[in-house]
Design brief:
With 272 residues, the chain is an alpha+beta fold. 35% of the residues lie in helices and 19% in strands. The protein contains eight helices and nine strands. The chain is rod-shaped, with a radius of gyration of 46 Å.
């Protein structure tokens, strides 16, 4: 089904309008003023366009410019806007309007409550607003208040009536006691005493001690040799690499035994 045709009112399409980018606080103040004016005026025909501000243009009346009107609307001409509201708190009452000279051509359109559309005019001047230097102290107070409000955390305490735990999620223990095992392991690690610092022996003396240990039994693990010799692990490994062979498989896997040439020298020494 085709959409219903809509008409556009163009009676005011040729008039010049101003496009102004204003802060949120100014827009809210204007909306509140318009709502207050409608409620105060009452009656069947309330004022739809109440006065919310006035624009002041300053220029030199003694200027010798041939076209004073065009000079008045120069981008460098001082424009100032005064808010009509007097009880606005720390909201700045005066604003400076900065005019833009180059901007994309635009038109302004409106839609009434009855759904009628109209072209309100062409944008002739574009402005940005900023607090006037007369109101910088008020604007600073407003910024501080806004920052303070954003830092306040609103907490609510709510009492649950006739609640039997519905919607409450209970944390169940992990299967196999993995959680408690992790705690015990962490506790054991924290209480593990630090190893005492071992002092190196003379290399020749340590080699003689190792030969005697291998006479006692042919295979030793590194851990047991450290206990027997009371030597630093790294120093003991260096000597073991020179004297021993590490068994990676077989019945003596994970142990060390003397290299064949050292076995023979030990046997020759022990021979009668």
């Amino acid at each position: 089904m085709a959409e219903e045709a809509k008409h556009l009112e163009t009676g005011r399409a040729d008039r010049s309008v101003w496009l102004m980018k204003c802060p949120t606080i100014v827009s809210q103040a204007w909306q509140e003023a318009a709502a207050a004016a409608s409620s105060v005026s009452g009656g069947p025909n309330p004022n739809p366009n109440p006065v919310v501000a006035k624009v002041i243009l300053s220029f030199d009346p003694l200027s010798t410019d041939e076209e004073p009107k065009q000079a008045s609307f120069s981008p460098f001409a001082p424009f100032k806007m005064e808010m009509a509201q007097t009880d606005s708190g720390n909201i700045p009452k005066n604003y400076s309007l900065n005019m833009f000279q180059d901007f994309v051509p635009m038109c302004v359109f409106s839609e009434s409550k009855q759904g009628k559309h109209a072209c309100e005019g062409k944008v002739g001047h574009k402005f940005d607003m900023e607090p006037h230097k007369e109101n910088l102290s008020d604007y600073a107070k407003l910024c501080r208040e806004r920052t303070t409000k954003s830092m306040i955390k609103t907490r609510k305490v709510q009492v649950l009536d006739k609640d039997h735990g519905m919607g409450v999620r209970t944390l169940l223990p992990l299967v196999g006691g993995a959680q408690s095992g992790a705690k015990e392991k962490k506790k054991a690690t924290a209480t593990k005493p630090s190893e005492q610092k071992r002092t190196r022996r003379d290399r020749k003396d340590l080699e003689n001690i190792l030969f005697k240990l291998f006479e006692r039994q042919p295979n030793w693990s590194l851990k047991h040799l450290m206990q027997e010799t009371d030597q630093p692990e790294q120093f003991l490994k260096e000597i073991m690499n020179d004297l021993c062979v590490y068994n990676k498989r077989g019945p003596n896997q994970g142990t060390h035994e003397l290299k064949p040439e050292y076995k023979k020298s030990v046997e020759d020494t022990n021979a009668p």
